Structures are given as structure tokens and as C-alpha cells.
Automatic annotation (TrEMBL):
<feature type="signal peptide">
    <location>
        <begin position="1"/>
        <end position="21"/>
    </location>
</feature>
<dbReference type="Pfam" id="PF13531">
    <property type="entry name" value="SBP_bac_11"/>
</dbReference>
<keyword id="KW-0732">Signal</keyword>
<comment type="similarity">
    <text>Belongs to the bacterial solute-binding protein ModA family.</text>
</comment>
<dbReference type="InterPro" id="IPR005950">
    <property type="entry name" value="ModA"/>
</dbReference>
<keyword id="KW-0479">Metal-binding</keyword>
<dbReference type="InterPro" id="IPR044084">
    <property type="entry name" value="AvModA-like_subst-bd"/>
</dbReference>
<protein>
    <submittedName>
        <fullName>Molybdate ABC transporter substrate-binding protein</fullName>
    </submittedName>
</protein>
<dbReference type="InterPro" id="IPR050682">
    <property type="entry name" value="ModA/WtpA"/>
</dbReference>
Amino acid sequence: MRTLRLLVTALAFAATAPVWAAPINVAVAANLQYTFDDLAKAYKAETGLDVNPSYGASGKFFAQIGNGAPFHVFLSADASYPQKLDTAGLTLEPSKVYAHGTLVLWTLKDLDLKQWEKLVREPAIERIAVANPETAPYGRAAVQALNHYKLTEATHSKLVFGESIGQTNQFISTRAADLGFTAKAIVISAEMQGKGRWLEIPATAYEPIAQRAALLKYSGDHDTADAKRFYQFLFSPKAQDIFKQAGYKLP
């Protein structure tokens, strides 16, 4: 009888106890590091749910997802990677552009960026930080900009490549590089605002940085509803306003 009462009590408790959802795993392009903090806070305020971000280069995440990495959602800095995942059948629905990135030149040294095309040619400028153009879209955009202004040959020996834009920012912020190319969202973030000088590179100098999100096939078997809810949140007016305030252009 006592055992029965304990069983009934346990079942009653289970029925009334809150269900704690495990945070969904989100692969986040490094340029979104500070912006994603704001997105996560806004999402939790709205839903009470947490998200678990991992930051890195979009190309590396693409390879990891292809090899079965347990990510629910992928926020890429490059449109091509989510589109390839669509084609490979690794998404639950077609991926979508959530924002367009803006390329800037940034320095923490006492340098005048107004004549940056002349500046990068000077012998005193020895290191220019650029994210790996093979895996990081902002690195590719930087290389395109240098080519657009016919600076490829003059800067070739000066380029130092970061694994991602996150590592590139470290090169710049620690002054290991004289200056470097990064995302506008980084330099205007609350964490970096007022540190150093930056100059926006004209959008005509590089291909549009269409940043695309994907709801991954992994979500089909793990926390599907929560993953889809967060994915849809990215395109809500609240989230889109966060992207806009962070320096991104809306699709």
C-alpha cells in the first residue's frame, strides 16, 4: 500500500513538474559573435528558452555539418554553404537570407584610414589581417576589395590570414596587425565601440555578403519544435531589428 502511495505521488509530481528543454545547438558565423548575444537574450525574454552557440568560420561549420555534427541551426556568413546543404538534403526546409554583411577596414593604431589605398602601400604597414578567403566570406570580400582597387600585388606579402574573422579580429585588436578587414557589426558592437578607427568599404568593391540561415536535418530527430521556433524567430521583426541595429542590411 505504501509503495502504491509513493508511486501515485511520484506520478503526480511528474505531471506537474516543469519540463526543461535542452538548449538547441547553433553554429554561428564568427562575425555574429556580439550580435548573437543580443539575439539569444531577446529570444529567451520572449520564450524562456536558451540557445547554445558555437562560433567559427562558415566553411568549417559546413564541413562539420556534412560529417554529422549535432547542430540544429546554422547561421552562415556565406549564402553558398546553406544552399549546398539544401542540395545535399541536410536541411528541413530551404535556407533563407537573414541579413547582408558590410565590410570595413579597422585599426587600433594611430593611422588615418581616409587615404587607405595609399596607406596600405606604405612600407610602414607590414601586416594586414584578413580572414581566410577559402572558408570565411568576409575574407573573400576583403580579397575582392583589394583586387578592385588594384592593391593585390602591393599587399600580397603583407597579408596575415586568420582562421576565421574572430581570429582576424584578435590580430587587429591586439595590434599584431597594423590594420585589417572585418565586419561592421564587430566595430560598432557595444564591446568594441570606440576602440580604434574604422572605415566602411564601398559595397561596389566586393560581392554582396548574403548571410543565410538553415534549419538542419539534425533537428528532425532532436528537439524539432524548439529548433524551428528559434529558426523562425530569426526572421521576426524583433530579430531583424537587432540585425539592423548591429550594422547589417536587411534582405
